[in-house]
Design brief:
The structure holds two protein chains of two kinds. By secondary structure, chain A is an alpha/beta fold. In chain A, 52% of the residues lie in helices and 8% in strands. Helices cover 36% and strands 22% of the residues of chain B. Chain B has helices spanning 3-13, 21-26, 47-60, 112-121, 138-144, 151-154, 189-193, 227-239, 252-261, 282-298, 310-321, 323-326, 346-360, 386-405, 424-443; strands spanning 17-18, 40-42, 64-67, 84-87, 94-98, 103-106, 124-125, 161-168, 173-177, 201-209, 211-212, 216-224, 246-251, 272-280, 303-307, 333-340, 363-369, 374-381. The chains are: A alpha/beta, B alpha+beta.
């Protein structure tokens, strides 16, 4: 452990134990090593030279959803997410990063063209999967057991991604820039399209950011600093060069990357840092943009009716929690669907996705997520809306596994329906 | 630790025995931030496993250190002699909440806040409320006899423990006490165990008294120019025959700490603040809140804020609840004491502390449960300046001497642990210590349970 920031960051932890009360993972593990206080102690020990096994410490740091609930509850405002990510990056230099991750983050996701090829290959391959589950949010395939968790389902991948479906020269320049993100481009292009068309309905011209490399968050949370920094620097350079006004993010995790995380990757005083500041200033979540654009003022009164209270909103940890953008999405929903929106049971509980956590420990991820969806469904929610790609992926899987009648959507899809309904 | 001992524990616990350095590090600390590595950690799920662990410990002679949430302030759960940390966090069932006889039966790993909430759902009330209630466990609270903000009206943990099931140092399973409102058969072994810091027995089940839930509550936050005025207000409130369910005093040093972290707008000239709470039937609460406001004003309060709804009350509480963790922003090391003086001597003690801080040139942050005369005295130091550390330790000794001289006690609710072991005799005298040691030998003849706590000759060096 060499990162000099880590000493100062961990030194603020009073070991009081507050993190135990809010940790998403603690009820699953019931062991101190799961919670922030334990992880801080491990890093402190490692820094004082007491670490026996860097791989074991890395394993402990990896067992975290980075939901940030501990950080927000912490009376001392210890920056747990940053500590865990820095710790992972530091240890990755000692124990290495698995080759498949290096290729995925450093080569595939860093390149729009390679991502597209990968998606096409995966789309072709998944047709061979035998089990099909029709769900309220689209077809899912049963994933073969033994390859990443019993019972996992994956959404049917589209033949064309959202950006690929745009006409040549369409949405090339504009006053507003849309950062679609990998998932809403390649996995759920209908969300990318809904976001694009609803932002466009504001009357402003919209450019879709086509050179997008992955936002870099998956690489960053995996401790692959090099790939993450590569993605971040390429993105902020190109985004700044495009000189847009607002940069709109339908995905809360991508937004977190540009609003906060890039600053711990890109060193101060470099040109890339200036780019990052300029991009952060203009980066805005989808809901906030809609509210400021006035597009919702054009909505007819939402239909009163029989569907009172059946649409809920799931708080993405990064968006509602870390960035504090929970009320905005609710306001958008209230105006788009009226009384059909109601506060959902357990709205602010983490969905258990955690990016690579879901790959690493699918059974735990699925227990947390399955419980989340079940609690909401039991309390009468039929449609779970949200605003983050990871949460959509996770909860669509959970619905496919437990209750395919529960529809999981991005709020942009509901706004699109309201704006363009026949 | 002996390899045979570890393999016997392995047979008993399977993967609930952990010996990796990583897990041991995670059980090496508590809220004192001192660290002592255990040799192993076990996670029992029932009393029999606790019993078997202690039997093995007698056979192989290793220490067993019970640990709830590790949130204590005196080092009670620190494995100062190594050995096995016995974590109760997986014994976390609420066995019954009896609404007819008003008691609950719980396992030791139940989080106090969870019990309070379960009782509340049934219209009942478990009053003890240590500041750590959201994460500290019932077992830990019993071991340390935790107090809290509401002690002024409702008493402390011991006042709610009716009966216990505990594994003694011999490995025998003792059942004490009753599940009834009264009981005087034989010695009060229940009270003997409460506050014994895991040195006499490991609680495996507790029967706890519940009360009807108060109908409503109101919170007041009164700002005073100085401690003497707020301390006078405290005595005037008691004289006015009102018993608030909380009377928390924060002096300027404490307010400043929290302000640095999360600013709460304060009236001009604030040098001390008093947080008051009253609970009970609605009409009574309103009347008493009015009366408290009047008394505070009459004793020089600059402003009195009041809230009756949950959110507003929470907001007022924020200032008080944030002090303890915010202290770390002041200095990296705190010598954290929790003395109690007769309520009428509060103002004198505050004056003494202020003088002491100047005289010894150390920063001292004071706050506490004024209704109980319980002051949390926090001496804040860098930990790297040897001279400052020496001055701070001398200051602590002075505080304790003054406390005992005033007729008070050196620990109201944190316990002795390792932090106060050097001062035990100062308060209880040589015979007191000797009798305590005889009792220890009776419950735990081989010194298995939590060695190195309470008694000086066994205690680790204060560090």
């Amino acid at each position: 452990m060499r990162d000099p920031d880590l000493k100062a960051l961990t030194g603020l932890c009073a070991k009081c134990g507050t993190c135990r009360t809010v940790c998403t993972l603690y009820p699953e593990r019931k062991a101190e090593i799961a919670v922030a206080r334990g992880k801080v102690a491990l890093i402190e020990a490692a820094m004082s030279g007491e670490d026996g096994d860097a791989a074991a410490v890395q394993e402990a740091l990896t067992d975290c959803l980075l939901c940030g609930r501990c950080e927000r509850a912490c009376p001392n405002q210890v920056l747990v997410e940053e500590i865990v990510m820095k710790g992972r990056a530091d240890l990755a230099e000692e124990v290495g990063i698995p080759a498949w991750k290096r290729v995925l983050f450093g080569k595939v996701m860093a390149s729009p063209a390679a991502t597209e090829i990968a998606r096409k290959a995966a789309a072709a391959g998944q047709r061979l999967l035998p089990g099909k589950i029709p769900t309220a949010s689209g077809l899912h395939y049963r994933f073969p057991d033994g390859l990443g968790g019993e019972g996992r389902t994956i959404p049917k991948l589209p033949a064309k991604g959202f950006i690929e479906s745009l006409g040549k020269g369409e949405a090339a320049t504009g006053e507003v820039m849309l950062f679609v993100g990998c998932v809403f481009d390649h996995v759920f292009p209908e969300v990318g399209r809904a976001a694009y068309e609803t932002v466009k309905a504001s009357g402003k011209s919209v450019a879709v950011f086509r050179d997008a490399a992955c936002c870099g968050l998956p690489a960053m949370v995996s401790g692959d600093r090099r790939s993450a920094t590569g993605c971040a620097e390429a993105n902020v350079r190109r985004l700044r060069a495009a000189e847009p006004g607002a940069i709109v993010f339908p995905c809360g995790s991508c937004l977190l990357m540009f609003r906060r995380n890039v600053f711990s990757l890109i060193p101060k005083g470099t040109p890339a840092y200036d780019d990052a500041v300029s991009v952060a200033d203009r980066a805005v979540d989808y809901a906030s943009f809609l509210l400021s654009s006035g597009v919702l003022d054009r909505l007819p009164d939402p239909p009163p009716g029989e569907k009172v209270g059946e649409i809920g909103y799931h708080d993405p940890c990064h968006l509602s929690g870390t960035l504090g953008k929970g009320p905005e999405a609710r306001e958008v929903l209230s105006r788009a669907v009226g009384p059909a929106f109601a506060e959902m049971a357990g709205a602010d509980l983490c969905c258990g996705y955690g990016g690579t956590f879901n790959v690493r420990d699918y059974p735990t991820s699925a227990r947390i997520g399955g419980n989340k969806v079940a609690v909401a469904a039991r309390a009468g929610t039929k449609v779970i809306s949200t605003a983050c790609s990871g949460c959509v992926l996770q909860m669509r899987d959970m619905a496919a596994r437990t209750d395919p009648s529960v529809r999981v959507v991005h709020i942009a899809e509901l706004v699109h329906q309201a704006l363009f309904r026949k | 630790m002996h390899a045979d001992a570890l393999s016997a524990l392995g047979n008993l616990f399977g993967d609930r025995l952990r010996t990796s350095l990583e897990t041991r590090i995670c059980y090496s600390f508590d809220a004192t931030r001192k660290t002592f590595l255990p040799d192993a950690v076990v996670y029992p799920i029932n009393a029999e496993e606790v019993r078997q662990t202690v039997l093995l410990a007698n056979r192989y002679r290793f220490p067993v250190v019970p640990r709830g949430a590790g949130s204590g302030f005196s080092g009670g759960s620190l494995p100062v002699r190594g050995g096995v940390v016995l974590s109760t966090e997986r014994m976390d069932r609420i066995v019954t909440v009896d609404t007819e006889n008003l008691y609950a039966v719980v396992e030791p790993g139940v989080v106090t806040g969870t019990l309070k909430e379960e009782a509340r759902k049934k219209g009942l009330f478990y009053p003890p409320d240590p500041a750590s209630l959201k994460f500290s466990t019932v077992g830990g609270n019993i071991a340390e006899c935790s107090g809290g903000m509401s002690a002024v009206k409702y008493g402390v943990t011991r006042d709610y423990v009716l009966g216990l099931e505990a594994v003694l140092g011999t490995g025998e399973l003792l059942r004490t006490g009753v599940a009834t409102a009264k009981g005087v058969v034989g010695y009060d072994l229940t009270r003997m165990l409460v506050g014994s810091e895991g040195t006499l027995g490991i609680v495996t089940r507790a029967t706890l008294r519940l009360m009807p839930l108060p109908e409503t509550a109101a919170t007041l936050l009164a700002f005073f120019p100085e401690n003497r005025k707020s301390a006078d207000a405290v005595n005037a409130i008691v004289a006015a025959r009102v018993t608030p369910s909380a009377m928390e005093l924060m002096d300027r040093t404490a307010i400043d700490c929290v302000q640095a972290l999360m600013p709460v707008p304060l009236p001009e000239g604030t040098g001390s603040a008093l947080l008051l709470e009253v609970d009970g039937p609605e009409a009574q609460v309103a009347r008493e809140a009015d009366l408290l406001t009047e008394v505070c004003r009459a004793h020089g309060a600059i402003e009195v804020r009041r809230a009756s709804d949950a959110q507003g009350r929470d907001e007022l509480w924020k200032l008080r609840r944030s002090i303890s963790p915010a202290l770390l922003r002041v200095a990296p090391v705190k010598l954290n004491e929790d003395i109690v003086v007769p309520r009428s001597r509060l103002a004198d003690m505050f004056a003494f502390l202020s003088d002491l801080s100047a005289r010894r040139n150390v920063r001292i942050v004071n706050f506490g449960h004024a209704g109980d005369g319980n002051i949390h005295v926090n001496i804040m130091i860098s930990g790297t300046d040897a001279d400052e550390t020496r001055r701070a330790e001398e200051a602590v000794a002075e505080v304790f001497r003054k406390t005992v001289e005033m007729g008070g006690t050196i620990s109201g609710e944190h316990g002795v642990g390792i932090s106060k072991a050097p001062f035990l005799e100062m308060e209880v005298g040589p015979l007191g210590v000797a009798v305590m040691k005889r009792l220890k030998a009776c419950f735990d003849p081989n010194g298995i349970l939590n060695p190195g706590k309470i008694f000086l000759d066994e205690a680790a060096v204060r560090g």
